[in-house]
Amino acid sequence: MTEDSRPDPRSGLERFLGDRPMALFVRLLLISLFVGFLMTMFGFDAADLVRGATEAIRDVLRDGGRIFRQLGGYVMTGAAIVIPVWIVLRLLRAR
Description:
By secondary structure, the chain is mainly alpha-helical. The protein has 2 domains: 44 residues; 51 residues, no CATH class.
């Protein structure tokens, strides 16, 4: 029996998290403390980040329609050339 065929002795939660829950909690707590300290030193605030992300999503949704209309125009312009050329090439290959 090879090692790969043995069942994983870890629980489903440990397999999902990638480590023991308490060890992961401590690691994430320390990393969060370090990142929070650095962000505070550079003048960032969690509320500013959430506000900025919300505004970015709102802008994407507002401008998304315009982007899709523009992309549709590009597709139609390209198709006006590509489709006839493709048809001609298919007809020439059929011979």
